[in-house]
Amino acid sequence: MALEPRGDVANPQDLDPIALGFMCGLEIHQQLATGKLHSRMPSELFDYGIDEVPDDWPRSSRRLRASEGESGQIDVAARFEQRRNRSFVYVQPPNAGLIEMDEAPPLEHDSDAVDLVLTMAAMMDAKPVSALQAMRKTVVDGSNTSGFQRTTLIATDGSVGTPSGEVGVDVICLEEDSARKLDTRPSSSGETVFYTLDRLGMPLVEIATAPDVQTPEHAKETAFALGTLLRDTRRVRRGLGSIRQDLNVSIACGDRVEIKGCQDLDWIPRIIRLEMARQLHMYRLANELRSDANLPSLPPDRSDDEIPVENRVAAAASSRLPLEVHDLSNCFVDCESEMVRDSLSGGSVVQGTALPGFAGKMGSKQLDGDGAELPRLGRELASAARLAGVAGIFHSGELPAYGISETEVEGVRQALSLAEEDAFVLCVAPSWQSKLALEAVVERARGAYHRIPQEVRNVVIRKGQPADGTTTAMRPLPGGARMYPETDIPLLEVSLEHWGEIRDDLPLSTEQRRERLQELDLSENQMEAILGSEMDDVLIIGVEGGPCGCPPLPAKAWASVILDNIRAEVAEGTGRDESEIPWPNLTLVVHAREESIITREGLVPLARKLWLEGPSFEDTGFEQRLEWLESSG
Question: Which end of the chain is less enclosed by CB atoms within 10 A, N or C?
Answer without folding.
Answer: N
